[in-house]
Structure formats: structure tokens, C-alpha cells
Write a structure and sequence with these properties.
Blueprint lengths: L5 H4 L5 H12 L2 E2 L11 H12 L12 H15 L9 E4 L1 H13 L5 E6 L4 H8 L3 E6 L9 H7 L4 E7 L11 H14 L2 E5 L25 E6 H4 L8 E4 L2 H11 L8 H13 L1 H25 L2 E3 L6 E5 L8 H12 L1 E2 L1 E2 L13 E5 L4 H15 L2
Parallel strand pairs: 1-11, 3-4, 3-5, 5-6, 6-7
Antiparallel strand pairs: 2-8, 7-8, 9-10, 10-13, 12-13
């Protein structure tokens, strides 16, 4: 009898795929999966088309093209003051998700413990489990969703190998502050831990809030793998061009795993992304302003519907407490929402190992055109009249 391996049998389908399929099946407005409904800078798209037409369609080097690795290094220096050797401290990956997978597979052994901040992007726990590691949750609790330093310290034990951090944080929109980062550095140094830092929303912050990369914090520079991607910054999530940077020995471990996953990533996209990293800061700045306006539109509308709204400082997502409208189970609510209101969202509870802290919270994506958000809000008014 054919059966899946025990490695994947318990993982099920990612909630983002489930909710997007539900939106497609029902015709609901998809405020679930975090992808924009507009594209990136026209010149970025033109450069990818030109590369395809010019025949740049075969394997790129496994580490990524020299052009893109150099552009990533320049980006890190220009924006964050981080100096990197593009030949030893940068690897291009098939999106940030592969970078996460390769970092876990390259740096964590079976039986190791990996601390994860929950709610989490679901790939973190799935990859830890596929690597044979044990995920240990530390919960960011509503409504502030700040890092509970004492709980983080208590979660670290003799078998802990790594901490997985996401800032700016999906799904809550929290940006970790200096005090939280310094405390995290002290814990990582004390226990000699690797830190895997997912920073894909690094430029998409609001209201003057600034993201500080973990690699700039004393004590974390030499032990942090930093992950980012072109998808979020340039609105090309389907291109799946990401990267991991950090000390050569850590990046080497990521590459040692990555070579057996995709080996290499989309060649014609790499030169286009290199151009964008050097020349499209204006697009990214405008994208941040647009997203802030779309955040305000969505959050104001959700408050008018009757939800308690937690406004994010960054990312694509806002969170609501659904209890004021008489619901208390986010997963049940989200599965019923297309019928109730013709909208799709994502429940927090599936982004926890213990679902209870996230049960009444739901994530809504505002990386959509204003008219799409407005239509969703009109539909959600049906909930107020129940």
C-alpha cells in the first residue's frame, strides 16, 4: 500500500493554500494568502523578459549569479551597514521558504530543539519537524505581541540549537525593538545558539517604525543567518528569488543543503532582481506608503464592522479579535467566512503549536488594490447584520 512518509504524513496542507483554494472555489475576495494583486516596477519586468529573449534560460551557478550576489551585498551595506563578501557570505535561494528549509537542514540535527516564536509562518515548524528537530514555542500574546524575554530564556535548554526569528513579524506586524533584540542576543550568546532570522518584510514598515536587522546587534553578527527575498520588496512573489546572508561558515551550511533541494534558482530573474536592488528604492518606498494607506483603509473598515483591530507596524497583514461579533474559533470562522460574507482570511490558531492563544484571532491581508479591500469591507458588513 502506498503511503506518505512519516516525515510528511502529519503536516497536512498549508493553511495559505487551503484558504486560497477556498477563495477560488467560492468566488470570495481573498484577504488570506499574502500576495499583492499588482506587479513590480515595469523595468524589472522588462529586464526579466529581455533575459529570457536573450537566452538566459539555463542553470545559474548554485550560489546564484555573481551579479545578484554582489547586488545583495551592496543592498545590505547601503541599507543596513552590513559588509558581506558576495563570494562567501551570500547564497541565492528559491524564495525565502527554501532559504528557511536549507538553513534548518544545514544547521540543525535530528533531536535538536529549535525555538520558534508563535504565531509563526507555518514553514518554520514544518521544516524543523522534517529535519527531525523538536520545535519549542515561545508565544507572542495579543494584543501587543511583544517578545516575552523571560519565556524565551526559559525555553532554551541543553538541547537547543537554534532560534528562529521573524521580524517584521508575520502574522502580527510587530517589529522587534532594540531592547528585545539585545535580550535575544544575550540569550543566544550565553547558550551558543544559531539564529535564523526571516526579514522578508524589512522595507515594508509604517508610521516611521524602522526595522533593525539582527545581524547588526552585537552578539548576533557572527551567529545569524539573515533571510530575505525580492518577492515582498518588489511585488513579485511568484518569481521565488530569495537569499541568505551571514558568516561564511553558516552560509556554507545553507548552501550544502540548498544544492540538494533546487540546486539553483530562476536564471532570467536573477539579473532583473540585481537591477532592482540597486535601482528600485523609489518603488519600495512608494510601496510602503501605499501599503500604509491600504492598512488604514482595511483597519478602519474592520473596526466599522465591529472587530477589535490590532494595527500592524509592518508587513502585509492586520489582526482582529473576532469575539466582539460573537465568534470564538478562528479556524471555524475562516472556513465559514466565504458563505457568511464572501471573503477569505487566515486564522491565527493554525500558526501555533498550542492553538489556544490564537483561537480568537484572524489575519487579514491588505496587500490588495484599494477597490478590492473596499469590496471585501462591503461584504463583511453582512456580519454586523447577523
Amino acid at each position: 500500500m502506498v503511503r506518505p512518509s512519516t516525515r510528511v504524513a502529519h503536516l497536512g496542507t498549508t493553511i495559505f493554500a487551503e484558504m486560497s483554494a477556498l477563495a477560488a472555489r467560492t468566488g470570495a475576495v481573498n484577504l488570506g494568502q499574502g500576495f499583492p494583486d499588482t506587479s513590480g516596477p515595469p523595468e524589472l519586468l522588462d529586464r526579466a523578459r529581455a533575459a529570457i529573449a536573450a537566452g538566459e534560460n539555463q542553470y545559474a551557478p548554485g550560489l546564484g549569479t555573481p551579479e545578484l550576489r554582489a547586488a545583495i551585498a551592496r543592498h545590505q551595506a547601503r541599507h543596513h551597514g552590513i559588509e558581506l563578501d558576495p563570494d562567501r557570505e551570500v547564497v541565492v535561494t528559491t524564495g525565502a521558504t527554501e532559504a528557511i528549509a536549507a538553513a534548518v537542514l544545514g544547521l540543525v540535527d535530528p533531536g535538536d530543539e529549535v525555538v520558534v516564536l508563535e504565531p509563526f509562518y507555518d514553514s518554520y515548524v514544518a521544516m524543523a519537524q522534517m529535519a527531525g528537530a523538536v520545535p519549542v514555542p515561545v508565544t507572542l500574546r495579543a494584543p501587543e505581541f511583544r517578545l516575552p524575554v523571560d519565556e524565551l530564556r526559559a525555553a532554551v535548554g541543553p538541547r537547543t540549537r537554534a532560534i528562529m526569528v521573524n521580524t517584521p513579524h508575520n502574522p502580527t506586524g510587530v517589529v522587534l525593538g532594540d531592547d528585545e533584540l539585545v535580550a535575544l542576543a544575550e540569550i543566544a550568546e550565553e547558550h551558543d545558539l544559531v539564529v535564523i532570522s526571516d526579514e522578508v518584510y524589512e522595507h515594508l514598515t509604517f508610521d516611521g517604525v524602522r526595522h533593525r536587522p539582527l545581524a547588526t546587534v552585537p552578539g548576533l553578527t557572527d551567529r545569524t543567518v539573515t533571510i530575505s527575498s525580492a518577492g515582498k520588496s518588489f511585488s513579485v512573489t511568484g518569481w521565488k528569488v530569495g537569499w541568505a546572508t551571514g558568516p561564511a561558515e553558516l552560509v556554507g551550511a545553507v548552501m550544502a543543503a540548498k544544492q540538494w533541494l533546487s540546486y539553483t534558482s530562476g536564471t532570467p530573474f536573477q539579473g532583473a532582481v540585481a537591477w532592482a536592488l540597486d535601482h528600485a528604492d523609489g518603488f519600495v518606498d512608494q510601496l510602503g506608503r501605499d501599503l500604509q494607506a491600504q492598512r488604514n483603509l482595511l483597519c478602519d473598515g474592520l473596526e466599522a464592522v465591529g472587530f477589535d483591530v490590532i494595527r500592524p507596524a509592518a508587513t502585509y497583514f492586520a489582526t482582529t479579535d473576532i469575539r466582539p461579533l460573537g465568534f470564538d474559533d478562528g479556524l471555524d470562522f475562516c472556513r465559514r467566512l466565504p458563505e457568511l460574507a464572501g471573503v477569505v482570511a487566515v486564522p491565527h490558531q493554525v500558526l501555533h503549536l498550542d492553538p489556544e492563544p490564537g483561537r480568537p484571532y484572524v489575519r487579514w491581508a491588505f496587500c490588495k488594490r484599494p477597490e478590492v479591500i473596499a469590496e471585501a469591507l462591503v461584504r463583511l458588513q453582512r456580519l454586523s447584520s447577523r
